[in-house]
Amino acid sequence: MDEDAARWVVRKEGAKLEPDTLAQFDAWYGADPLHAQTYDALAASWRRLDQVSVLPIARKKRKSRVKTLASACVLMGASFYAWQMFEQQGLINSGVEITQLSLPDGSVAILDAQTRVRLNFEHGQRQVSVESGRAFFQVVPATAQTGPFTVQTGLAQATALGTRYEVSFNDQVSAVAVYEHTVQVQCQSCDTSQPVILQPGDRATVAHGQLQAQLAQSTASTHAEAAPAWTNGLLSFDDVSLREAARQLGQYTHRVIWMGSEKAEATRVSGVVQAARPAAALNLLTVGQGLQIRELPGLIVIY
User: Fold this and answer.
1) Running DSSP on this structure, what letter comes out for residue 269?
2) What is the three-class DSSP state of 158?
3) Residue 41 CA to chain centroid, in angstroms?
4) Number of CB atoms found within 10 A of residue 9's CB
5) Is pTM, for the whole model, over 0.90?
6) pLDDT, tens digit, 9 for 90 and up, residues 64-107
7) Cα 271 to the chain's mean position, in Å?
8) Phi/psi at 194 (nearest 5 deg)?
9) Is 200 helix (H, G, I), strand (E, B) or coil?
10) Integer Cα distance of 133 and 111 in angstroms
């Protein structure tokens, strides 16, 4: 019902309707009192809202100490919340927030939004299972009392050899990307169980019973950053569909992002944006494209 109401708000507020279309609206509006109530509330919100302010373009630069401290405080709060959740449920789910965890062995895990992991650090074990989403790990070396640091995701197992690396599991595809030192990746149910050793800049995927490694061609192609951009709250898009950008940004909000026109569906975008502010990010990505972004209760409309 909310989506139907939002559709009519976009159409009625955007242009004068033809008689046939107006008759369809009147029929829908009068068919159910809830239709009218929902439409009136959304239309009132639409008229009250000014256009969302545009974010300045994000540039790669070192954070100031104040910004770093502020980010650390936010992540510490998210970490405390995630540990409470782990103690209560045996499972950590980041929800719509990027969440930092201080693990029992001193390692650090940063979970992207909509990421679910399980931890096993009993009896000297150091095991993490990424059940969905993606996580970045900063691993401390093993000691005489601890075993290797291993991340399980789908059919892939990634064992750190003292390193920084990213692990993701989406649509039944496991992926590992190395940012520092080396990682051993092994597929547990592939045609070959031979592990591969990844260096900085290398990546590997496991899907459909196959382990494939993409090795950096030269030192110039290795990761220049110590961590992926998303761990700092940034998303980068390079000539992707607006629908795909909206899908990714939708992971960082409880609101639905709705494509309200064929023009929006056909638009492609590029840019670097702040994931935590999806509406402003969409505004930035669509500058000069002739599109509008509107925020309604529980909804972001692109038309």
Assistant:
1) E
2) strand
3) 30
4) 26
5) no
6) 444 444 444 444 444 444 444 444 345 899 999 999 998 888 89
7) 16
8) -65, 120
9) coil
10) 8
The structural domains of the chain, with segments of one domain joined by +, span 2-57+230-302, 91-221
- Identity of residue 71: S
Same topology for domains 2-57+230-302 and 91-221, yes or no? no
CATH code of 91-221, in short, is: 2.60.120.1440
pLDDT digits 0-9 by tens, 266-291: 999 999 999 999 999 999 999 999 99
Cβ contact 28:37 at 8 Å: no
DSSP 126: E
Residues 220 and 202: their CA atoms lie apart, in Å, by 12
Structure tokens at 213: 């490694």
Separation CA 179–CA 166 (nearest Å): 8
**In contact, 253 and 269? CB cutoff 8 Å:** no
Distance CA 206, CA 155 (A): 7
Residues shown for the chain: 303
CA atoms within 13 A on the CB side of 40: 8
